[in-house]
């Protein structure tokens, strides 16, 4: 729903509701129960007109980012929706997607700038974690340790304000960023956390690329160049324009042949976690991103769960 359609719908809905109220007083043709039913139907229709396009956008965006690795198209899609966002809350949601697209395209400074421009008070605090985490990742790639630490600290500070359903989501990001920060001091802890959180790609090529890229950093620290190059070769052979491929080019030492590591169907066999296994951070991200566009403020989340 574009801006003109959004405001037109509101105006029409308001006029119809007003007309019904006036009619109810003057003509006495309908009682308040019927009037309430009509208003409720109008609200549900209005809700549908907002949520359905958002879901379609999210599905298309994720396909471009996670499967097609077409970051330029994802950036364009997000920008188009920002320009036509009917509300400031939805604009903020689209800006989150744009920032992630810039990051995954290796445009770290533009990603940081996009995240800085978001009105955080228009989003549920769980999205703040997503924003701060991607800012931290961007600063890490840019080599800015101070701002990386600041972004990580912002995640720690926002955790008390996050709904309990997504505390594990915030903890996963905090843990990932912490081991990345401390990889030189404790590479084995880094490896364990990366494997626990990133190894289950569930068919998403982008997640598989991130896993191999992060593991390459482990082998770099422990001075196993050939194993590092194997991880990087997997990224280079399949990464297209993904940021991991761009970074892998800087690290690759040419000790193996890239063409030997093109992914096959066997590389994408679905891994289903057991019921008692902690949900990988990527799946928690997807759960958070699918939150209703009408429930983008902390109060709305709390009220919904208290009913």
Main pleated sheet = none
Low-confidence stretches: 270-307
Please give the CATH class: Mainly Alpha
Question: What portion of the residues fall into strands of 2 or more residues?
Answer: under 5%
Rounded average pLDDT: 80
The tally of domains stands at 1
Task: Describe the overall structure.
It is a single chain. With 307 residues, the protein is mostly helical. The protein has a single domain (70-306), classed as Serine Threonine Protein Phosphatase 5, Tetratricopeptide repeat (Alpha Horseshoe). The chain is 71% helix and 0% strand. The protein contains 14 helices and no strands. It has helices at 3-26, 32-68, 71-83, 88-104, 108-116, 125-142, 145-158, 167-181, 187-198, 205-221, 225-238, 243-251, 281-289, 298-306. The longest helix is centred in the N-terminal third of the chain and has 37 residues, at 32-68. It is globular.
Which terms would index this structure?
307 residues, mainly alpha, Serine Threonine Protein Phosphatase 5, Tetratricopeptide repeat, 14 helices, 0% strand, disordered C terminus
Brief overview, please?
With 307 residues, this protein is mainly alpha-helical. The chain contains 14 helices and no strands.
